[in-house]
C-alpha cells in the first residue's frame, strides 16, 4: 500500500486532513514536542486517534525550538484570549497570531516530515493547513503550500508532495468534512493552554467552538 507521513498534533485540522487519505495510504503519524504547553494533551489525543485508526505513531523531540522561541505557546507568557466577534477582525486576530507564533514551526515540521518521507518511500506528506488560519498564519496559506511543493520538486530526488485537503476550507467546513468522512474528531484536542478541559477562550478553542456551534453539533 502507498505510504503517507502525517504531521500530526492530534488537533481538529490534522485529524480531518489525515482521515481524508486513510483508505488509500498507510499512515505514519509524527507528533512534535517543542515544549508547548499543550504537548501532554496533544500526545494523549494523538495516541488515541492513531490507535483507533490503526496508524503508526512517533514522537519527535525538538528541545532547541523551545529554547529559541518567544511564543506564548512554549514560554511562561500567558496565552491570549479572544472574543468570538473578534475572530474575523484581521487586526485583532493578527495580534493573537503574532503572540502564539513559533519561529518557522511549519517549515521545520514539514522539512522533517520530508526527510521521513524520503526514508520510508512515502509519496505524500499530509498537513492540516487551512484557509481560515491561513489568513493570519502565512505558513498555513495556499501560497506557502504551493511554493513548498515547488521547493520539494527542486530539492528532493523523490516524487513527494504535500497534501493539504483543508487548504481552502474554514473551520466550519473542516468539521463538516470530518463528520462526512467519519473522522474521530471527538478525540481531537485543539486548546493552546494544554488544560485537561479545553479553556474555551483561546483563539484555537474559539474557532473550533464556533464551527461546531454553526453546524449545530
Summarize the structure.
By secondary structure, the protein is of the alpha/beta class. The chain has helices at residues 12-19, 39-53, 63-68, 90-100, 105-120, 131-134, 142-155, 171-181, 203-214; strands spanning 3-7, 26-33, 56-61, 124-126, 161-163.
The chain-level structural class is alpha/beta
Order of helices and strands: EHEHEHHHEHHEHH
The helix count comes to 9
Shape: globular
Q: What is the top-level CATH class? A: Alpha Beta
How many domains, in number, for the residues?
Answer: 1
User: How many strands, which pairing sense, and closed or not: the largest β-sheet?
Assistant: 5 strands, parallel
Number of strands: 5
Measured on Cα atoms, how large is the radius of gyration? 16 Å
Approximate helicity band: 40-55%
Uncertain runs: none
Amino acid at each position: 500500500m502507498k505510504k503517507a507521513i502525517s504531521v500530526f498534533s492530534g488537533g481538529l485540522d490534522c485529524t480531518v486532513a489525515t482521515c481524508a487519505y486513510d483508505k488509500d495510504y498507510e499512515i505514519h503519524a509524527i507528533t512534535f514536542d517543542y515544549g508547548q504547553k499543550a504537548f501532554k494533551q496533544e500526545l494523549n489525543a494523538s495516541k488515541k486517534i492513531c490507535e483507533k485508526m490503526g496508524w503508526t505513531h512517533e514522537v519527535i523531540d525538538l528541545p532547541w525550538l523551545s529554547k529559541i522561541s518567544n511564543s506564548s505557546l512554549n514560554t511562561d507568557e500567558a496565552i491570549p484570549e479572544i472574543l468570538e466577534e473578534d475572530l474575523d477582525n484581521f487586526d485583532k486576530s493578527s495580534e493573537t497570531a503574532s503572540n502564539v507564533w513559533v519561529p518557522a514551526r511549519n517549515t521545520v515540521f514539514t522539512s522533517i516530515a520530508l526527510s521521513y518521507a524520503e526514508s520510508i518511500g512515502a509519496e505524500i506528506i499530509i498537513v492540516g493547513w487551512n484557509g481560515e488560519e491561513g489568513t493570519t498564519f502565512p505558513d498555513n496559506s495556499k501560497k506557502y503550500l504551493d511554493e513548498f511543493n515547488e521547493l520539494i520538486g527542486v530539492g528532493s530526488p523523490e516524487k513527494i508532495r504535500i497534501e493539504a485537503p483543508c487548504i481552502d476550507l474554514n473551520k466550519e467546513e473542516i468539521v463538516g468534512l470530518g463528520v462526512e468522512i467519519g473522522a474521530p474528531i471527538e478525540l481531537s484536542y485543539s486548546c493552546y493552554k494544554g488544560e485537561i478541559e479545553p479553556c474555551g477562550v483561546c483563539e484555537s478553542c474559539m474557532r473550533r467552538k464556533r464551527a461546531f456551534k454553526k453546524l449545530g453539533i
